Amino acid sequence: MDRTEGTTRTEAAADGAAQDAPAPRGEGKRRRRWIRRTALAVVLLVLVPLLSVLTALRVNYMGDPADGTQTRDRDALWLGHAWVDGRKKDADVTALARRLKDTGIRDLYVHSGPLEHDGTLPKSVYPKARWFIDAVHEKLPGVRVQAFLGDVLASENSEGMLLNDPDTRAAVVRSARQVLDTGYEGIHLDLEPMPSGDRDFLALLDALRRETRSRDAQLSVAAHQIDPLPALHTVFGLFTEHPKWWSQEFFGQVARRVDQIAVMSYDTAQPLESTYGGYVAQQTSLALEVTPPSTDLLMGLPFYYESNFDHWGHAETVPAAVRGVRLGLSRTDADRANFGVALYIDFAATEADWRAYKEDWVR
Question: At 121, phi and psi to the nearest 5?
């Protein structure tokens, strides 16, 4: 027993000494080379596809738009809540009318919510709506005023609207009926973040369309961007609860249920004007391919400036967006009548934004 234990301890000590012995001199160099090569491979794995995508977008921004790719007098403008809560006066409407004279703007989406999470809408949030609608009709004949209604959708980690609740969807329809009774000429719906393929959203649009059609009113939606790469929304869905994109198929399903669909073609994280413009050109083409000719397709223009990871102000400019829109229209359906741009948003717009819109699109 003693001898066996002694032998075992000696062997263990020898093993420990072997483990503590320094590695051969060449092994450390090989390990460092392996680390460097692995790091380089990871960098290339990320950078090569990214650079390829950016190059493709810059190429997509090249060329000349076709003649005649300009306003078809179906443009829209998103307006802030101040127009219906009492902050704006007659002089403001007069200034707005002067601003919009000789442009292609036909619809005003005036923020009149937000909806409550249960789908209801207190009348107290838009006390001056009737005044604003009448003032627009007086000073801007032919321009329609739509109620811009939205809410945040619930997720596992946040409160919000639950579209899978039939009572909530029914309440949204009643809220739409309520604002149409006030005099609005349409409903503009913006529910975010809306996952691609959401059947409850399609059911809500079907119900709203029945209501708006019975009143000869418009139904429009603010739409997410379309997958720039196949199934990209599915891939991103593995890492985030709120994928940024819709599939092209789902975009078409939404477009077939509404009178107008406005693509929120901003907040793209593109780093350059050329890649942003190329991205907008791609989005325009993808949307045109699946939007029925009877539906107005509007591409959003960034009438605001901010700089963060999602939106680089030096890149997402109105001139780049308009050029991208014209290129996508030229390549896909240059003669399409039911097409326009939507300007987001009035209170953040600069003189340069308005000038670019008028010079590059209204012409």
Answer: -145, 105
Helix (H), strand (E) at residue 79? strand 75-79
The H-or-E segment that residue 323 falls in is: helix 318-332
Residue 239 above 60 pLDDT? no
Q: Are 329 and 289 in contact (CB under 8 A)?
A: no
Round to whole Å and give the CA distance between 158 and 241. Answer: 11
User: Whole-angstrom Cα distance, residue 91 to residue 94?
Assistant: 5
- C-alpha radius of gyration, the chain, whole number: 28
Distance CA 7, CA 1 (A): 10
pLDDT in tens, 313-355: 999 999 999 999 999 999 999 999 999 999 999 999 999 999 9
CA separation for the pair 241, 81 (Å, rounded) = 29
pTM of the model: 0.84
Other beta carbons within 10 Å of 175:
24
Whether 132 and 167 have beta carbons less than 8 Å apart is answered as no
d(C-alpha 218, C-alpha 298), whole Å: 14
- Tokens standing for 218? 């418009």
Q: Name residues whose C-beta falls within 8 Å of residue 363's C-beta, 6 or more positions apart in sequence.
A: 70, 71
| Contact present, 190 and 153 (Cβ < 8 Å) | no
d(CA 305, CA 321): 13
Half-sphere exposure of 230 (CA within 13 A, CB side): 0
DSSP code of residue 151? E
Answer positive or negative: Cα dihedral of 241, 242, 247, 252.
Answer: positive
The answer to whether the beta carbons of residues 348 and 77 sit under 8 Å apart is: no
**How far is it, in rounded angstroms, from Cα 14 to Cα 124?**
84
Helix (H, G, I), strand (E, B) or coil at 14: helix
Whether 33 and 293 have beta carbons less than 8 Å apart is answered as no
Tokens, residue 211: 């209501």
Q: Which residues contact 312 (CB under 8 A, 6 or more apart)?
A: 269, 270, 271
Q: Is residue 106 classed exposed, middle or buried when 0-12, 13-18 and 19+ CB atoms within 10 A define those classes?
A: buried
pLDDT tens track for 157-180? 789 999 999 999 999 999 999 999
Q: How far apart are CA 320 and CA 70, in angstroms?
A: 14
